[in-house]
Amino acid sequence: MTPSSKALVPFVSVENMMRLVHHLGIETVLRDLADHIEEDFRRWELFDKTPRVASHSPGGVIELMPTSDGALYGFKYVNGHPRNTRSGLQTVTAFGLLADVATGYPVLLTEMTLLTALRTAAMSALAAKHLAPRGAHVMAMIGNGAQAEFQSRAMQAIVGIDTVRLYDIDPVATEKCVRNLAGSGLCVVRCGSPEEAVEGAHIVTTCTADKQYATILSDNMVGSGVHINAIGGDCPGKTELAPAILKRSSIFVEYPEQTRIEGEIQQLEPDHPVTELWEVISGKARGRQTPSEITLFDSVGFAIEDFSALRFVKAAIQGTPFSEDLDLLADPDDPRDLYGMLQRSAAVSEA
Amino acid sequence: MTPSSKALVPFVSVENMMRLVHHLGIETVLRDLADHIEEDFRRWELFDKTPRVASHSPGGVIELMPTSDGALYGFKYVNGHPRNTRSGLQTVTAFGLLADVATGYPVLLTEMTLLTALRTAAMSALAAKHLAPRGAHVMAMIGNGAQAEFQSRAMQAIVGIDTVRLYDIDPVATEKCVRNLAGSGLCVVRCGSPEEAVEGAHIVTTCTADKQYATILSDNMVGSGVHINAIGGDCPGKTELAPAILKRSSIFVEYPEQTRIEGEIQQLEPDHPVTELWEVISGKARGRQTPSEITLFDSVGFAIEDFSALRFVKAAIQGTPFSEDLDLLADPDDPRDLYGMLQRSAAVSEA
What we know:
The first copy, chain A, is α/β, with parallel strands linked by helices.
């Protein structure tokens, strides 16, 4: 008795996600992800938007991030546990699901730890494409943890940077990053301080992991014309930038209701003006207006980006061997006969 | 390159859930589920309780139901699409996940379509154990759909009923139910009307599927001393009982904030007195007080019951072959080296 096709949900394991990325090439994946996000940001208004549903505990947070465009429904499960690395675990792990709104049936289950790193990088690069100064080709990467190489490769593939200037409080992290970016075509520069890293950079990306008010960038480190891509401040109490920088910047956000709680702008008054990035992407608002302006993308990660990433995976696995069918849904011949299905399965397994 | 044990999450497919039920026996499963729910209802106050997160569409609803006891976090994905049966699909499908709060790592992924039917039946029987009149042994089962046999078997295993009186607007559903309950030890009576079904019944269970204000039970059908187990009214606009019955009954609910929106009591004033079932189970409130009282369990299903069911499955599969390991979590040797893991996997797959 094999389950019918209605019972089966395509599942993309970590192994298969890696195979898919190698099959397509990471640059193509990052560009395709950015395209899917851009498409969804253009139709932002039709999405069902709710802030994430968070369950906080002393060690971290577990979140569910649902959204829907009316035809598909998606959600991501994601945790954030800063102390996990001490026991050899990931700070952030994630998986996601896409379902058909008309029937409620899941149509894709996938790992999202890798996929989130990829979509976060694609999102950053998409924002930089719209906000960074013309001709930007040098990025400072402050914080050389799990996100750093993905950020660098996305900025290379989508914005066209050719140089990354790396700094981390832990030189081992920087060495790992240098090693991983060898052969990428990027010119990689090790820096001994954040000040050194930002020298000559057109884009400054901050991505550090401490859950506390930190000042990774102080006011005097940020010159005119720079685009700041602030990734690490993404939950209450966790910020990376000095408030003075925020006050000098034009600030762009994903979803203000969420960013005011979780982003860098939690340090500002609740009515401090910000521009929603979807408005820039869809031509309803202006992005960078002068070459000397400081633009800041206060990134916290929003459910629609995960939705776009899930859509990308669903399309990308078609006709490939990079998914397996999971017997996740009970599918009796007669939908009202769930008990009969259970009974008949006993007869079969005893036979 | 096989994933490390940290990457793997035990997964219980529909097939394996059926095997597990047959391995243990359905009576044992129902009793164990009721025991797990009872345990969790006794420590109700320590749970993180939020109403379900619902995404409504013209065809139905998709919901996420999260909760946590501080050590474990669980959520259920569940849809409700009444028109699904027309295209041979289940009205309700579900899956669930349990995670370790300390690390955020998932520890169990399981089908929950079957498991929800089992836990809903166990919950009904647990409520009846505390509320039904002493010596109750006859149940009317109005609505003979997917839940009917599970409800009957749970009332048999946990409350000790010996007779079910079946009625459905569709005689085919009743025949299916009669067929499935043959050999269960229950005396099964086909009835031609709801009025006939409730004759002599100590417990009346209603479980019909229409998403509209319906009156499955009218006032004159409910005599004194009866316990009503109302399952079908479980979302806004969907009710089964005449308001007059509610006004004559002592009403018991799972979580008032949710039941006032979704349950039968959405027909009453928002301050109509109700008793929380956990208070009865933990001895803080009285259940049935007189033999002539009408008790009503206005059941909508709450996240804690799913949490109990997930705990049950996690314990029950230990040492059995009824789960498989899913490569759901990326697990690099160095948690900060997600990109390196991806790179090295290419080298391996090319080799």
